[in-house]
Amino acid sequence: MLPETKTPTEELKSMLIDIKDGQGKGHEELSKLKKEFDELLKSHNDQKAAVDLLRKASLEYRKTQKVELRAGQFVSEGCAKHLGALLVINGVLQKKMSGSHAEKLLAKAAEELQIEVKTALTSSDIPLPVNYASEIVELFWKFGQARQFGTVYPLTANSTKLPKTTTSPAFGIIGQSATVTEKSPQFAWATFAPQKIGGLVRIPSEIDSDSLVALGNFLARYIGREGARFEDNVFFNAANSGAYTGYTGLLKAADTAGKVLQLATTNTHPSDITVANVRAIRALIDSAALGTSAYYMHPSMEVLLSSFNSSTYTPYQPMGPNGPTFEGFPIKWVGVMPVYTTSATINAYQIAFGDLSYWYFGERGGLDVQTSNEVFFATDEIGVRALERFDVQALNDSAVAVLKLAAS
Fold this sequence. Notes:
Layout: H1 8-21, H2 24-64, H3 77-93, H4 99-113, H5 130-143, H6 146-149, E1 151-155, E2 160-167, E3 186-192, E4 195-204, H7 212-237, H8 250-256, E5 260-262, H9 275-280, E6 294-297, H10 302-307, E7 316-317, E8 325-326, E9 329-333, E10 349-354, E11 359-372, E12 381-394, E13 400-404
Parallel strand pairs: 1-11, 5-13, 6-9
Antiparallel strand pairs: 2-3, 4-12, 6-10, 7-8, 8-9, 10-13, 11-12
C-alpha cells in the first residue's frame, strides 16, 4: 500500500496542534526560531549600548580638549553647537520658534545638550561650560592686543592690590669697617577694581534647521570681536571718562606719570612727527625695560615710517623674521590707536614705546554667556548676553612712554 499522505492544509493543521500541545516538529521549529530571535535582539541591544557609550565618551572628550585657535579661526564644533543649542532652547521657551521646523531644531539642541526636551528649562539651567567659555576668550586673544601684549592676571576678589616700586635707593661703595646703610625701596599699591562690561546680541528667531554650528560660530566670533575691541580700548585709550569711566589706559597713564614727549605748538598733524621725535621717546623709559621694549602704533602709521627711509638711511624695516622694526626695535600694530592722517588731531597719543608686560590685565572670573527671556519681545528676536569683569593697572610707571601731538 502507498504511504498515507497529507494535504498542505492537513500538514499545517497538524503542526499547529503539535505547537499547542508543546510537542512535535512544529514546536521544535518555533522554539529554535524564538531562540535565534532572542540572541539577535540581545546582540542588537549590546551594540546599541556600546555605540551610546562611545558617543557619550566622544562628547565628553571633545568638551575637555583645549582647542588652539589661529587668528580668524572659528571655535570648535562642540562649542559652536552648544551656543546654537542654547539659543534654540531659549527661542522655543519664549514661543518665538514653533512648528515642525522648530521641532527639528529643538531635537538637535536637546541631543547636543543631552537633555529631555519635555523637561521644564530656563536659561540658567544650561550655563555655558567653563571649557567652552575659554574657547570664546581665546578669540579675545586672537582678535585683540590687550591680552597679547599685557600680562593677564587672574583676580580672586572684587578688589585686589598688587605692589609696585615707586623709588629704589641705589647701592653704593661702603668703606672698610664702615656702617652698611639701609636701603628702603618705596612701594605703592596698584588696586584692581574689576567692572562689569558686556552687551546683548540680537538674533532673529527665523533660524535654519541645519545652522546650529554656523549660528554658534557667529555668536562666538561676534562676542570675541566686540569683547576684544572694548578690552583694547580700555587697555590703551581709556581716560576715566565717557564709556570708560573708572578705567585709565596706558597712554593716559604714561602722560600722567610724565613719560610723554609732546610736540611743539602747531605740530598737530601726525605728518609733523620726525625721526628725532620717534627716537627721543626711547629715552623716557627706565633703561631696564629698554631691551624688551617695542613701538606701538596704528598700522596706518606705516605711511609716516616709510617716508623716513632714503637711499642712505632706512630706519624702518617693514619685513623681517620677527615683523617690522624701527632702528632695530620691534613695531607692534594696534588697531585702536590713533590713525595716520593729514588733518589736525590735537593732543593725540600717536605712538607708544615700552614694555607692556608691566601692564597687567586683571580678569575676575570667566566669561558669562546666557540667553535672555525678557528682551526683544516686540521684535520677535532672541537675546544673548555676554558679560566679563576686568581691570587694567600698571605695575611700573616708567615702563611706557608716549609721543603726543601738540595742543594747538
